[in-house]
Amino acid sequence: MRLEKAGFWYGIKNLPTLAVSIKMPNSKIQKDLRHNLTVNVVESAFFGLGAGFASYITIIPLFVSGFTNSALLIGLIPAIPRLGWQLPQLLTADRIARLQYYKPTVMWLTIHQKLPFLGLALVALLELKLNHQTILYLTFAILIWQGLGSGFSAPAWQSMVAKIVPSGRLGIFYGALAAAANLMSIIGALSAGLLLKQIAQPFNFVLCFLCASVAMALSWFFMSRTREPVDNSLSTIETRREFWDSLNVILRCDKNFRYFAIARMLSQLALMPLPFYTLYAVYHQGMGEASIGLITGVLMGTQTIAGLVLGWVGDRWGNKLVLEVGSVVCAFSAVLAGLATNVNCFYLVFIGAGIGMSALQNIAAVMTLEFGNQRQRPAYIGLGNTLIAPATILSPLLGGWIVDNIDYRTAFLVAAIGGLVTALVLHVGVRDPRYLEQNFSTHSVEVLPEQ
């Protein structure tokens, strides 16, 4: 049977009809839109507040550095949430696609995203009772738990959002969530810096993680207020075999997506030095605890502004351009960090890092949604996240090995090269998918080989 006749591809010729139905949300969705926007923005704000108190870029690496000198272990810390977000999505996407009501699954799975911060507070409290190795084991176990909780809940959450928000307003919705989270992250980061400075260790970290836990609990509560309409329609994917067959089709037939996936893998090198910037500034440039909180706030503030500006630029001139710029900016930040002569240089380093993170993470995720048509999109989302998971874990391992065996500046140089190579692959090998989607949807599928 030709794959175009399988359940996953069935109905491609009826896409105009599907598009009309997608653009015409029912009255229940419209009625609850303001309510859902409000509760989800508040939910995102509290999530951002918690993320500021327990930042994977600054606060947690600093906590872990008290128990180990291994740059390899510390470099893994910011990679864990990214890997946890990416890796499980393809494994759960086909099952999520069969659900008719997402909210119960979202609420159950997000407990595993938010509760681990309380575990970090307990570990910090036990610092005086446990040896360093045990603390490290517990800390990384909790971080992995939190990362996987994010990844397992991601497909259900994204599906719920797509269901409760009309497609024409998704950009505004995601922009509002990101802005609320980043602004509150600044408050959390600045408050964490004061706690670290004013309170003796380990109680300063205990309070940081406790504040993060309270914020995450409030985040979960407001998420539970989301109103999701009941949908009795059948899933467009009938069997697991159809879903996995569709992945094979994409990888064989969509060369543009393959190059995009390669570019995203390479971009993990450009993002690799983020935790090392903080450690290099603290241990080699003499940055104090209060400055750590301030520079985290600079990072969050940059991401807030950059997310809005880069999203606007991507809407008008294409997300590919934004990714290229973000890759170059990441390379610039890495070079500047290697050449820095004092702490003040790192404010520019973190501004560049914030711009690069917004481009290579947020805008890359938006660009993934532009590949394929509506029926193919779940498979693209799963592939777009899971394929880059190995690079997400290997790049910080490489960075940590370089720091341990050579020095920080060499790691920054490797990251700069990675950023430039990423920009080159995007420029030469990738075409903006928003202009190619119709060609792939209506032509490539028709010429698939017999199965």
Automatic annotation (TrEMBL):
Any one Gene Ontology molecular-function term assigned to this protein's record: transmembrane transporter activity
CC per GO annotation: plasma membrane
PROSITE patterns cross-referenced by the UniProt entry: MFS
Predominant cellular place of this UniProt entry's protein: membrane
Leader peptide range in chain numbering: none
Every Major facilitator superfamily (MFS) profile domain range: 212-451
Alphabetized Pfam families for the sequence: MFS_1 (PF07690)
Transmembrane region(s): 37-57, 63-85, 106-128, 134-152, 172-196, 202-223, 259-280, 292-314, 321-340, 346-367, 379-402, 408-430
Keyword Metal-binding listed: no
Membrane topology: Multi-pass membrane protein
Compartments reported by the entry: Cell membrane
Swiss-Prot/TrEMBL keywords: Membrane, Transmembrane, Transmembrane helix
Stated name of the protein: Major facilitator superfamily MFS_1
